[in-house]
Design a protein that fits this description.
0% strand, 138 residues, mainly alpha
Length: 138
C-alpha cells in the first residue's frame, strides 16, 4: 500500500527492518512526519459533518492508526508524535512506549480524547485525580 498523504510506499515489517539499518534517521523522520501530518489533517477535517459523511475522516483515522501500528520503536518513543496521535485516537496510547504511557501530558491528551485510554496509562497515573476526572468527563 501507499501513504494517502505522500504516496510513499508502506513497508512491510521485514522491509522496514532492512531499510532502517540503511537509513534509520530518514525513516524516523518520514514515519514521524506522516503521523504528525495525518493527525493535523484529521484535526482540520474531523469536525466537518460533510467530511464525516463522505468517509474522509474515517480514511484519515484508519491511515493514522495503521501508521502507528507499523511505526518503529523510535517513533513510538517520540513525545511529539505520541501527543499528536493520541489527541486523535486516545486508544493509540497502548502502542507507545511505557515512558510515554507514564507521561502526564501524553496521558491527558489520550484520556481527553477517549476516557477508556486511562487503562493504557501507567499505574501511578491511574491514581492521578486530574487525569481520572478528565477520563470521566470525556
Amino acid at each position: 500500500g501507499r501513504c494517502i498523504l505522500h504516496g510513499c510506499q508502506l513497508l512491510s515489517p521485514p522491509q522496514l527492518r532492512v531499510a532502517m539499518t540503511e537509513s534509520k534517521q530518514d525513516l524516523f523522520d518520514q514515519e514521524k512526519r506522516c503521523i504528525l501530518e495525518l493527525s493535523s489533517l484529521w484535526g482540520q477535517v474531523g469536525q466537518d459533518r460533510e467530511n464525516q459523511q463522505n468517509g474522509q475522516t474515517r480514511a484519515i483515522h484508519q491511515e493514522l492508526r495503521h501508521r502507528v501500528l507499523e511505526a518503529s520503536a523510535a517513533v513510538l518513543a517520540d513525545h511529539e508524535t505520541a501527543v499528536a496521535a493520541v489527541s486523535v485516537d486516545g486508544s493509540l496510547l497502548e502502542y507507545f512506549c511505557e515512558d510515554l504511557q507514564a507521561d502526564l501530558e501524553v496521558a491527558l491528551a489520550a484520556v481527553g480524547n477517549n476516557g477508556s485510554a486511562l487503562q493504557y496509562t501507567s499505574e501511578e497515573l491511574r491514581r492521578n485525580r486530574a487525569l481520572v476526572l478528565t477520563a470521566v468527563r470525556s
